[in-house]
Amino acid sequence: MAAAGPRPVRAPRGGGLSARGWPQEAAYRMLQNNLDPEVAEHPDQLVVYGGTGKAARDWGSFEAMLRTLRTLKDDETMLVQSGRPVGVMTTHEWAPRVLIANSHLVGDWANWEEFRRLEQLGLTMYGQMTAGSWIYIGTQGILQGTYETFAAVAAKLARENKHSAGSLAGTVTLTAGLGGMGGAQPLAVTMNGGVAIVVECDPSRIERRIAHGYLDVRAEDTADALRRATEARDARRPLSIGLLGNAAEVLPRLLAEGAPIDIVTDQTSAHDPLAYLPLGVDFADMHTYAKEKPADFTRRARESMARHVEAMTGFQDAGAEVFDYGNSIRGEAQLAGYGRAFAFPGFVPAYIRPLFCEGKGPFRWAALSGDPKDIAATDRALLDLFPENESLARWIRLAGERVHFQGLPARICWLGQGERAAAGERFNDMVASGELAAPLALGRDHLDTGSVASPYRETEGMRDGSDAIADWPMLNAMVNVASGASWVSLHHGGGVGMGRSLHAGQVTVADGTALGGEKLRRVLTNDPGTGVIRHVDAGYEQAERTAAEHALRVPMREG
Ligand code: NAD
After folding, report:
1. Is 357 a catalytic residue?
2. Ligand 1 pocket, residues with Cβ under 6 angstroms
3. Does 180 appear as a known binding residue?
4. Domain 356-553 grouped into CATH 3.30.2350.10
5. Residues contacting 499, CB < 8 A, separation 6+
6. Atom 13 of ligand 1, nearest CA residue
7. pTM for the complete prediction?
8. What is 140-345's CATH topology?
9. Among 176, 361, 384, 509, which has the minimal tally of Cβ within 10 Å of its Cβ?
């Protein structure tokens, strides 16, 4: 057989089958969809997103998986070891059609150096979270996650009576960074009704975000930004403003001037001190300087981050809502000797954990038909199912207008315990009745309530100190296998790198059959359910209330 090589990849569309059943067909389409040039960052290298997160180990493995999926029977399961199909086993019709283990290393070996050595030998690949588990849907995921975080900020402000709207209307958010992920911030704030000032040192990033409709305007200078921001705030009109500058310079200045800022965060590339612009360095000189004098650059970048974080802490002292958005800026500022770096919290403990306690997480689905009308129909179904959920309704309406589909049309929204199962049941009925042109693949990010152990991110600061306990994602994966998911994945190192996280995923197909409906009901109840019980176990009262409401059994709370 000739060696397989890079080729353009696009998932088949429509209601016809290339495989023997829809669960196999869904895996066949979603694997290819992850490598669609509209979806993947470097499809020729099989890289989907997140550095080197891949969908298949090499082109030979990719073609072999497609070949196998086309002929896989309804009582067979394909085993995937770090992006390579290694076996087909006879199982049964309730079993997943694909089981995936990506990037695992034994504890003492779990570092990047050893991983890269083994990767070079062709023995493994980096699966990130949704790259190697075939449920990445492009930048919509980042936009929605950021939207959800800002919606949670608005809800917290409302709970604390600092702001009544339940949206960000009438508030000003100050942040920095308009890069790959940070670029979602301005749109996420305006979708929540607020005003955002976003500081960015690279003028091309500001122009790009305006061109793509993620950012509204560019300010002339700081005074212009503040004037426009306060006018829009007073009119309760959403507006996002790009401001060219160095955040380590602009934030302290705005603080000293007493600028009326309600919310402060940051998404500069602080996790990598060689990518953060130090004070006193021109943006044009940044890359050469970082390359030629990395130690000097790092020291100056860290010192600048300390000034940046000091200003963020100052805003907090002045009454603003301040949080770290997962870019390690607090840790870097601490390394530079700033003593109050951890005065403000990370975004997961502050806003996401209360959602996790309700079983909420980044639920998503893709229309295997390829027809955007199918997603529009599911959008309408959700609005009908959850009429009282304002933030969900706002997201669904605005996503319908603003989000451009990449690859197979898809939708993401955060749904909780009970809600996911209700949505799954409705979607399966819509497939059965012919309202949708073809089945749907229902899955989620690995960043979910019960499916991840990641002490620097999703499980930072757990109430009982269980941050690094990794039994939970294992139980989550096993329960999804036992409940009828179409494919289940267990990964290592997604989001935060080797040795720092373990996480699991599932995708289940709404194929319109009674069996498909039964599987969906179990998976979409038990999958978020493991998150609720994980948080009950850690002592969160909100999770106890959710468990009680949904009759989730927790033996240690019984008897
Ligand atoms: P990126 O490298 O694409 O963009 C970073 C931007 O920051 C660049 O446009 C750069 O010009 C700008 N920048 C650098 N130094 C600056 C300075 N001193 N002042 C103003 N602007 C400056 O990175 P990205 O993909 O957008 O991610 C940003 C950070 O946010 C990363 O650290 C990422 O890990 C983090 N993040 C975390 C989560 C999470 O934890 N879930 C989510 C989103 C982003």
Report:
1. no
2. 176-182, 199-202, 205, 246-248, 267-271, 275-277, 325-327, 457
3. yes
4. no
5. 105, 107, 110, 111, 493
6. 268
7. 0.90
8. Rossmann fold (3.40.50)
9. 384
